[in-house]
């Protein structure tokens, strides 16, 4: 299986994350991608290519132009305001102070585009996010050209980013950008299956009122897990998209036996939908040792469900999302891909 990877991900390296009233090293760190790359080289999964540049156009098919421009200029505006730390929101248009009109102040613009506060922006964040999206688009090229599957080793991840916000360690929604690009290049229907521990709120929001993308997510229940405000079972799509979103929230301590039952339900939905392409938002934070999550999957379980995904016999694009047990992240990620191939 082809992997697409850009070393420009290292340009995004936030140095602090608020956590339970303290500040910690960010869970989403550059070593994550390095562990995955090392493991897939170790097992000889296949070639590793650098992304081709598809430009801004496929990104702008999903994200608002004003948001993209914000990402491109936020660091310069932040430092011009005299700030020296990583870009951090401190004010939001909250529930009782709704957004009425834009303020040009950089603090207002950061708060307007920030979904939440744990995700830092540094000088190279835009460039890293741009090439992460290009990795997804380049892996898609391989699948559209006839490869059974390809793996976009994206970093930063993407599934929390809706059309015009960043957060949950995500800036550009790589999976959504690839799904939209596939539609723009002739696919009639695309299924996006999100197996990251966290609900894929960004992807859901982007496609919520559309029937050409079936979005399905298995995740920690919003009662107990980030992003808390989305991912309930009764969120099933609206308008033309009614019935084309499916959520499988699961409680703390969920073992693979239970997670797998939800996966099989999701796979049945995908079979009925008969998409031309399957995009997997591949997060490995379902792992029993993940430091910020609470499912109980083991390394062997990743091999197993990789095989179940292959059972759909669909052209499949894997897009890297979360997973924070860094030292085991390579093994777990590559286990899914190897399970798929065998
Ligand atoms: C891509 C991805 O996996 N993003 C995850 C973003 C999670 N951000 C919020 C983390 C909140 C952690 N709270 C942990 C409580 C642990 N007991
Ligand atoms: Zn996650």
TrEMBL record:
- Its Gene Ontology biological processes? epigenetic regulation of gene expression
Similarity comment text for this entry: Belongs to the histone deacetylase family.
Tell me which InterPro entries the record gives: HDACs (IPR000286), His_deacetylse_dom (IPR023801), His_deacetylse_dom_sf (IPR037138), Ureohydrolase_dom_sf (IPR023696)
A single MF term (Gene Ontology): histone deacetylase activity
- Name-wise, this protein is Acetoin utilization deacetylase AcuC-like enzyme
Q: What is the lineage of its organism?
A: Bacteria, Pseudomonadati, Pseudomonadota, Alphaproteobacteria, Rhodospirillales
Q: Which residues form the Histone deacetylase domain?
A: 28-334
Q: Which domain of life is it from?
A: Bacteria
**Pfam annotation, one family:** Hist_deacetyl
Which UniProt keywords are present, listed alphabetically?
Answer: Hydrolase, Metal-binding, Zinc
- What are the required cofactors? Zn(2+)
């Amino acid at each position: 299986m082809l992997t697409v990877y850009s070393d420009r991900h290292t340009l995004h390296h936030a140095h602090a994350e608020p956590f339970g009233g303290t500040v910690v090293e960010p869970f989403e760190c550059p070593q994550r991608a390095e562990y995955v790359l090392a493991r897939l080289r170790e097992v000889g999964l296949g070639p590793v290519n650098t992304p081709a540049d598809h430009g801004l156009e496929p990104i702008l098919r999903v994200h608002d132009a004003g948001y993209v421009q914000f990402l491109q200029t936020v660091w310069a505006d932040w430092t011009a305001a005299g700030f020296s730390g990583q870009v951090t929101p401190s004010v939001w248009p909250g529930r009782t102070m709704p957004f009425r009109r834009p303020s040009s102040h950089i603090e207002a613009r950061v708060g307007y585009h920030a979904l939440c506060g744990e995700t830092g922006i540094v000088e190279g964040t835009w460039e890293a996010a741009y090439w992460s999206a290009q990795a997804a688009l380049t892996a898609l090229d391989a699948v559209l050209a006839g490869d059974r599957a390809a793996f976009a080793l994206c970093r930063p991840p993407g599934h929390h980013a809706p059309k015009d916000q960043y957060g949950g360690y995500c800036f550009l929604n790589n999976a959504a950008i690839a799904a939209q690009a596939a539609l723009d290049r002739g696919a009639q229907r695309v299924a996006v299956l999100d197996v990251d521990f966290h609900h894929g709120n960004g992807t859901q929001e982007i496609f919520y009122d559309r029937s050409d993308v079936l979005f399905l997510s298995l995740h920690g229940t919003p009662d107990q897990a980030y992003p808390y405000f989305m991912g309930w079972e009764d969120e099933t799509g609206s308008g033309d998209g009614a019935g084309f979103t499916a959520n499988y929230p699961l409680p703390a301590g969920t073992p693979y036996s239970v997670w797998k039952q939800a996966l099989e339900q999701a796979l049945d939905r995908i079979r009925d939908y008969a998409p031309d392409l399957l995009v997997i938002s591949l997060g490995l934070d379902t792992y029993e040792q993940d430091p910020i999550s609470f499912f109980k999957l083991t390394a062997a379980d990743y091999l197993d469900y990789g095989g179940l995904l292959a059972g759909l016999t669909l052209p499949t694009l894997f897009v890297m999302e979360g997973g924070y047990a860094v030292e085991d992240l390579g093994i777990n990620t590559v286990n899914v891909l190897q399970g798929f191939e065998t």
